[in-house]
């Protein structure tokens, strides 16, 4: 029995087969880096969350074609979701956004569109544009929130408030066919366990469709690395994270799709904790599953709204 609603199960239920993601860097920037909202970006930001700078040099079409080919060869995959991941993928003129997203129409094997962005960067016309794809595609909007606590958002230099997030959620929910996934970081030094679980309750109360969680991890060259080396705050141990992740899952509704359970950075770029690399990914997920079993608990066990 699966004790949480995994992304792979959700996609299998929807499409009757395994569906794979192809990530794309469409060359956008971010209002929290170019001075519109802030400068320097979020303290943990490394290349807007994409570790492959080579992608940027290729067209979106090339990236999708090569991504599909790679994943098809590796997993014999037949259906794909295109994930606009790097930086803020709704930050641009409407016509530019449309022509970028429209590239997926050239690939009949693509069944879905995923757009990663910020809560303060989803005006209604952009949501209307995204909604226009829902007649042909599964569409997810991914919002970085990271924490429901303003002091943490400030510490991370997110450049938006909790209120921006609530506003975005309420407006996204008006478009019934759009799905909303929210990113959360556990282990921020500005928060204790109760604070982190309050973020889970906050998302549970808002009934977001999906959640991605990962532990705070420090990447070389970021502002977070500078602060970490100066202040030497504590990063989560693996067993602490496993417990917190299970506590977090217990508070979410059963229907929330769990799209990510840990963080992965390239080993050569990771300052810590050591277990946030691809090498440990399956181990972390396995430990979370084991903890759910041992506690005989499940996602939704402490959902209270
Ligand atoms: S919102 Fe995303 S791209 Fe922009 S600075 Fe923060 S992490 Fe980087």
Automatic annotation (TrEMBL):
<keyword id="KW-0408">Iron</keyword>
<dbReference type="GO" id="GO:0003824">
    <property type="term" value="F:catalytic activity"/>
</dbReference>
<dbReference type="InterPro" id="IPR023404">
    <property type="entry name" value="rSAM_horseshoe"/>
</dbReference>
<dbReference type="InterPro" id="IPR007197">
    <property type="entry name" value="rSAM"/>
</dbReference>
<dbReference type="Pfam" id="PF16199">
    <property type="entry name" value="Radical_SAM_C"/>
</dbReference>
<dbReference type="GO" id="GO:0051539">
    <property type="term" value="F:4 iron, 4 sulfur cluster binding"/>
</dbReference>
<keyword id="KW-0479">Metal-binding</keyword>
<dbReference type="InterPro" id="IPR006638">
    <property type="entry name" value="Elp3/MiaA/NifB-like_rSAM"/>
</dbReference>
<dbReference type="InterPro" id="IPR032432">
    <property type="entry name" value="Radical_SAM_C"/>
</dbReference>
<keyword id="KW-0949">S-adenosyl-L-methionine</keyword>
<dbReference type="Pfam" id="PF04055">
    <property type="entry name" value="Radical_SAM"/>
</dbReference>
<dbReference type="InterPro" id="IPR039661">
    <property type="entry name" value="ELP3"/>
</dbReference>
<keyword id="KW-0411">Iron-sulfur</keyword>
<protein>
    <recommendedName>
        <fullName>Radical SAM core domain-containing protein</fullName>
    </recommendedName>
</protein>
<dbReference type="InterPro" id="IPR058240">
    <property type="entry name" value="rSAM_sf"/>
</dbReference>
<feature type="domain" description="Radical SAM core">
    <location>
        <begin position="12"/>
        <end position="251"/>
    </location>
</feature>
<dbReference type="GO" id="GO:0046872">
    <property type="term" value="F:metal ion binding"/>
</dbReference>
<dbReference type="InterPro" id="IPR005911">
    <property type="entry name" value="YhcC-like"/>
</dbReference>
<keyword id="KW-0004">4Fe-4S</keyword>
């Amino acid at each position: 029995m699966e004790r949480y609603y995994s992304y792979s199960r959700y996609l299998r239920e929807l499409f009757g087969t395994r569906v794979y993601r192809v990530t794309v860097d469409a060359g956008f920037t971010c209002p929290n880096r170019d001075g519109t909202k802030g400068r320097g970006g979020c303290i943990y930001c490394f290349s807007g969350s994409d570790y492959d700078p080579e992608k940027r040099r290729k067209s979106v079409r090339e990236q999708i074609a090569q991504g599909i080919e790679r994943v098809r060869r590796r997993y014999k995959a037949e259906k794909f979701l295109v994930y606009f991941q790097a930086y803020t993928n709704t930050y641009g003129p409407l016509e530019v956004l449309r022509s970028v997203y429209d590239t997926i129409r050239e690939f009949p094997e693509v069944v879905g569109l995923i757009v990663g962005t910020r809560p303060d960067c989803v005006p209604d016309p952009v949501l209307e544009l995204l909604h226009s794809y829902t007649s042909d595609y599964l569409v997810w909007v991914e919002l970085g929130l990271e924490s429901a606590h303003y002091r943490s958002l400030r510490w991370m230099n997110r450049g938006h408030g909790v209120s921006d997030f609530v506003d975005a959620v309420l407006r996204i929910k008006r478009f019934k066919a759009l799905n909303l996934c929210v990113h959360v970081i556990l282990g921020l030094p500005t928060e204790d366990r109760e604070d982190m679980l309050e973020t889970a309750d906050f998302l549970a109360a808002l009934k977001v469709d999906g959640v991605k969680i990962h532990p705070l991890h420090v990447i070389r060259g970021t502002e977070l690395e500078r602060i970490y080396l100066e202040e030497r705050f504590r990063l989560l141990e693996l067993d602490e994270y496993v417990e917190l992740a299970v506590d977090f899952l217990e508070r979410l509704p059963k229907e929330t799709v769990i799209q990510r359970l840990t963080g992965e950075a390239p080993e050569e770029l990771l300052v810590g904790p050591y277990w946030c690399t691809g090498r440990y990914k399956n181990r972390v997920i396995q430990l979370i599953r084991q903890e759910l079993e041992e506690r005989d608990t499940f996602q939704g066990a402490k959902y209270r709204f």
